[in-house]
Design goal:
This protein is an alpha/beta fold. The protein contains 14 helices and 11 strands. The strands form 3 sheets. It has a 7-stranded mixed sheet. Helix 11 packs across helix 14 (370-379). It is globular, with a radius of gyration of 20 Å. The N and C termini lie far apart (53 Å). Bound molecules: nicotinamide-adenine-dinucleotide and magnesium ion.
Amino acid sequence: TRKVMEAIAAHRDPSRLPVRLGDRAYDILVGEGLVARAGALIAPVLPARRVVVITDETVAALHLPTLTAGLAEAGVGIVSTITVPPGEASKSFPQLQSVVEAALAAGADRRTAVVALGGGVVGDLAGFAAAIALRGLTFIQIPTTLLAQVDSSVGGKTGINLGLGKNLVGAFHQPRLVLADTGVLGTLPPRELRAGYAEVAKHGLLQGELWAWCEAEGARAVAGDPTALAHAVMESCRLKSAVVAADEREESEEGGRALLNLGHTFGHALEAECGYGGELLHGEAVAVGLGLAASLSARLGHCSQELPGRVISHLQEVGLPARIGDLKRRFSAEALMGRMRKDKKARDGAMRFILMRAPGDCFTTSDVAPLAVQTLLRDEGC
Ligand code: NAD
Ligand code: MG
């Protein structure tokens, strides 16, 4: 039956979402079995039938053979396959240098495309390598985590980390095509799938209708249901790409890409306090951040008093933390506020928040009294 199911999936057309970015416009394809058909799907956008594939060890073991076969089938040659260790540490200058050198040493030229097969780490590293190697190569994203499919593979931000902080060096480099194969999510650890779902819930709260879908059907996506996952990916990409198309380089002060940071002011502070060693995944921090952003919005009178309860109970129902008390460690309100004042989004030391009036109606503000934030954090047990 598995073979038959695969054959059926292989003949169903993927859903296609055009991202309108003028001469950098591209498509996001969402569906099952796209990795196996990658050669035929990407061939039309390649400058020449040759690619460099960049992946990590975990993803290579699970999905690289399928990609290699899919490329060979369409006559797309692989100049080199470059495999980096899994994990955030691979987003570094040394790793970037070795990836670019390996690609060029293997014979990559200006008509060679870079294909990223992996999660957000591989996408950010490979995308930055593609942006700078030979002053810019065609870039294809094949995201393999839910987070990468709904968030990092869309929008053109690429980059690496410094000791000073995350994502401090990078470039905008739009992909030429994104293949979101929901089938590969089947091998993703459930905790990673849930963490990616936090960004879907965030997109839901920004968009409105998608939030109603999350409350009704989101649990099915978190349980791995392929139809529900495909819907979550498609609608998330629709929301994010529309926001990006309106504000490609995050230049808008009000709204625009900054809205995508809903839940992230609190989330980044919690993540930074925990260190980036896996104690708290980014999506888990964002989930708590969404709960806190809803609570802050209600306390300031911007949204209904019911909304925080609904946000928190939905996230908790799908197995995500949504309150500081859901996390195992204790946090100091002062330390968290110190982090939020130093956040990349902060202006002149004023914390910057995305607040909610209702699902589908969010706004950015730097005008929140620190005391309101402190009281909230204290009430949350800090
Ligand atoms: P990740 O790339 O580290 O992947 C998480 C883990 O899952 C890794 O161990 C990976 O090897 C493994 N994995 C990947 N696909 C798998 C699969 N199909 N089956 C089994 N295991 C699999 O992490 P992530 O959560 O995908 O991405 C996080 C990164 O994305 C961060 O570096 C973050 O800064 C970046 N990011 C970038 C943007 C952007 O706009 N560029 C947006 C959000 C996040
Ligand atoms: Mg995020």
